[in-house]
C-alpha cells in the first residue's frame, strides 16, 4: 500500500468484512462470568490469552493479588517510534437479582441488533473491540513503525488497585499515549474526569434512656444530622474554575444540552462539588439514646478545588459544631484531571470518529472518575472511547447496539495507524 489513508481504509473495511467475528468475540466475553466482587479473573483471562495466542501474539500474565490477573501483549517494532497503549478491564459489577432481568445476564445473545448481558456496555464490548483490533493487526502482519500494547486489567469496578496503577507503578506497561475502551457517547470521547473524595464520618454521643431525651444524654444521630447539614455546604462553594479547562467544561455542558439531553438539568455538576450521603448507620434501639452514628459520603470534585482543601473545609465546619468525630478517607481518591485535546492520541480518536461516521466529534468531561487518572499521574496522555447504551450501565437489562461496537472498532484500528504513522513516510 502506498499511503496511510489507503492503509486505514483497508483496515476499516477488514473490520466490516469480519464484523460477525467481532460480535462473536464480545458475546463470548459476556458469557464468561467475571463479577467483581469477588474479582476472580482466571477464566476470562485464560480465554483472552488463548485468543491472542491463536493469532501468534505473545502474552504475559501478571497476578497482582489472588486470582486477579493482568494480561499484557505488545506488537510492532521498537525502533524509536511511538508506543500506544490500548487498555480495558475484564471485570463487571454483580448482576444482582436475576428475576429483574428480561434475559439471562450472561447470555451474550444478539437480539434485534442489540448485544445483551452484564458487561455489554461496561465494558466487554469495548474490551472485545480493542482485543479484535490488536489481533487483526497481528494476523494481517501490519508493519507498525512503533508499538501497540494491549493491557487487560482485572480490578476496575472496585477501585482499580490491582489493575492499571499496579502495572504502571511496576513499569510493566509504558507508552506515549493511551486509549481506554470505557463506555462513552457515540461521537464524544471522554478527555477528563472530576476528582473523587470518599470518606466515612463517625460521630459520637453519650447513651441514656430514650424517655429522657432530649434532656439527658448526647444524641449521636442528632449530632450527625447537624454534621450532614454542614457537609452538604460543599455544594454551595463558589469554585474558581481554571481558565485552561473552561473550553472543556463549556463543551461538556453543550454535550449535556444537545446529546444526552436528559442530563441538561445536571450541568452544574461540572463546576460544583457533588455530595452524596450514601450510607448511614447509628443507634441500638428506639428507647436508647444513640452513642454513635456513621455515614459514608461520596464527593466528586471539579477543577479548582483539591482534596486537601475539601479536608480543611470539612474539619473547619465539623469543629465548629463542638462534636466528637472521626473522619476517615476510603475508596477513590483523586483531584480533577484531563488530557488536552491537542494531544496526538486525542486527535487520532476524535479525527477518526469523524472519518468513520462523517459526524462532528469532540471530547467532553466526565462527571465521575476512572482509571484514566492513573495514566495521567504517570504523564501518559489518555482518553476514553467505547460502545455503550449509557442508560443500561450497572443496571438491569444491560445492552449495547451491535452497530456501535463495529463503529468503535473501526475507529480503534484507524487511530492506531494515524497515531503510530504520524511522522512516518509510507
UniProtKB/TrEMBL annotation:
Record-linked Gene3D superfamilies: 3.30.70.360, Zn peptidases (3.40.630.10)
NCBIfam families assigned: DapE-ArgE
Source organism of the structure: Robertmurraya siralis
Cofactor (UniProt): Zn(2+); Co(2+)
Record pathway: Amino-acid biosynthesis; L-lysine biosynthesis via DAP pathway; LL-2,6-diaminopimelate from (S)-tetrahydrodipicolinate (succinylase route): step 3/3
InterPro entries given in the database record: ArgE/DapE, ArgE/DapE_CS, Bact_exopeptidase_dim_dom, Peptidase_M20, Peptidase_M20_dimer, Peptidase_M20A
EC number: 3.5.1.18
GO molecular function: metal ion binding; succinyl-diaminopimelate desuccinylase activity
Pfam families assigned: M20_dimer, Peptidase_M20
Family membership: Belongs to the peptidase M20A family.
Keywords of the record: Cobalt, Hydrolase, Metal-binding, Zinc
Residue runs in coiled coils: none
Name of the protein in question: Probable succinyl-diaminopimelate desuccinylase
Reaction(s) catalysed (UniProt annotation): N-succinyl-(2S,6S)-2,6-diaminopimelate + H2O = (2S,6S)-2,6-diaminopimelate + succinate
Keyword Transport: no
Keyword Metal-binding: yes
Amino acid at each position: 500500500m502506498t499511503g496511510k489513508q489507503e492503509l486505514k481504509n483497508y483496515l476499516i473495511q477488514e473490520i466490516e468484512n469480519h464484523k460477525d467475528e467481532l460480535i462473536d468475540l464480545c458475546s463470548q466475553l459476556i458469557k464468561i462470568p467475571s463479577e467483581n466482587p469477588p474479582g476472580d479473573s482466571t477464566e476470562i483471562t485464560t480465554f483472552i490469552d488463548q485468543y491472542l495466542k491463536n493469532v501468534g501474539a505473545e502474552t504475559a500474565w501478571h497476578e497482582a493479588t489472588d486470582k486477579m490477573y493482568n494480561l499484557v501483549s505488545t506488537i510492532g517494532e521498537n525502533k524509536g517510534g511511538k508506543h500506544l497503549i490500548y487498555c480495558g478491564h475484564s471485570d463487571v459489577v454483580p448482576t444482582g437479582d436475576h428475576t429483574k432481568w428480561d434475559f439471562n445476564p450472561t447470555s451474550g445473545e444478539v437480539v434485534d441488533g442489540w448485544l445483551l448481558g452484564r458487561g455489554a456496555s461496561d465494558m466487554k464490548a469495548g474490551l472485545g473491540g480493542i482485543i479484535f483490533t490488536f489481533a487483526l493487526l497481528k494476523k494481517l502482519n501490519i508493519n507498525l513503525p512503533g508499538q501497540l500494547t494491549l493491557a487487560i486489567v482485572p480490578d476496575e469496578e472496585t477501585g482499580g488497585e490491582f489493575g492499571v496503577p499496579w502495572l504502571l507503578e511496576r513499569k510493566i506497561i509504558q507508552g506515549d499515549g493511551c486509549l481506554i475502551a470505557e463506555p462513552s457517547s457515540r461521537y464524544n470521547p471522554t478527555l477528563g474526569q472530576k476528582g473523587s473524595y470518599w470518606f466515612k464520618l463517625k460521630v459520637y454521643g453519650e447513651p441514656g434512656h430514650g424517655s429522657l431525651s432530649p434532656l439527658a444524654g448526647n444524641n449521636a444521630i442528632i449530632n450527625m444530622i447537624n454534621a450532614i447539614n454542614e457537609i452538604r455546604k460543599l455544594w454551595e462553594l463558589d469554585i474558581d474554575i481554571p481558565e485552561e479547562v473552561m473550553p472543556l467544561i463549556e463543551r461538556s455542558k453543550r454535550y449535556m444540552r444537545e446529546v444526552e439531553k436528559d442530563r441538561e438539568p445536571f450541568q452544574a455538576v461540572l463546576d460544583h462539588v457533588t455530595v452524596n450521603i450514601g450510607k448511614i448507620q447509628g443507634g441500638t434501639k428506639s428507647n436508647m439514646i444513640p452513642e454513635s452514628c456513621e455515614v459514608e459520603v461520596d464527593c466528586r470534585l471539579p477543577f479548582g478545588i483539591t482534596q486537601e482543601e475539601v479536608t480543611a473545609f470539612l474539619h473547619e465546619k465539623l469543629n465548629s459544631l463542638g462534636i466528637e468525630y472521626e473522619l476517615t478517607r476510603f475508596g477513590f481518591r483523586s483531584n480533577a484531571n484531563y488530557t488536552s485535546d491537542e494531544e496526538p492520541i486525542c486527535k487520532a480518536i476524535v479525527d477518526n470518529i469523524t472519518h468513520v461516521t462523517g459526524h462532528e466529534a469532540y471530547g467532553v468531561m466526565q462527571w465521575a472518575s476512572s482509571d484514566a487518572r492513573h495514566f495521567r499521574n504517570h504523564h501518559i496522555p489518555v482518553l476514553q472511547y467505547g460502545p455503550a447504551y449509557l442508560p443500561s450501565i450497572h443496571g438491569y437489562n444491560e445492552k449495547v447496539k451491535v452497530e456501535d461496537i463495529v463503529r468503535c472498532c473501526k475507529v480503534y484500528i484507524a487511530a492506531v495507524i494515524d497515531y503510530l504513522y504520524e511522522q512516518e513516510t509510507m
